[in-house]
Amino acid sequence: MSELAHHTKALRADPACALLLGEPGPTGDPLTHPRLSLMATARFVPRDAPEHAALAAHYLATHPKARLYIGFADFHFVRFDIQGAHLNGGFGKAYQLQPSDLPGM
């Protein structure tokens, strides 16, 4: 994340956040398609943290053009520590999840 972005300033002021994951289908009402809301706490990863180099390597492997800006002073990696989630599987299908319900969390 860039230090210039509004959401970076907001997360620095209050790290509580939510991430919405979903992919609406090609047709129909978007509210009928599954989506997952993750409740999290944002944690900025300092450049001198042991995990920074691994995050940079992974990011560059999947986004090679980021080599242009990954070293900029205002660029930061952010980890999202998940506290819970809400799964909406479509109309009338809503579930509250714990981190243990989410693989890899």
Major sheet details: 4 strands, antiparallel
Run of helices and strands: HEEHEE
Q: How far is the N terminus from the C terminus?
A: 21 Å
User: What is the rounded Rg?
Assistant: 17 Å
Low-confidence parts, pLDDT < 50 over ≥5 residues? none
Give me the number of helical elements. 2
Q: Tally of extended strands?
A: 4
Mean pLDDT, as a whole number? 89
> Which percent range fits the helix content?
10-25%
Please report which band the strand proportion falls in: under 5%, 5-15%, 15-25%, 25-35%, 35-45% or over 45%. 25-35%
Strand order of the largest sheet: 1-2-3-4
Structural class: alpha+beta
What is the approximate shape? globular
Task: Please give a handful of descriptors for the protein shown.
105 residues, alpha+beta, four-stranded antiparallel sheet, 2 helices
Give a short synopsis of this structure.
The protein has 105 residues and is an alpha+beta fold.
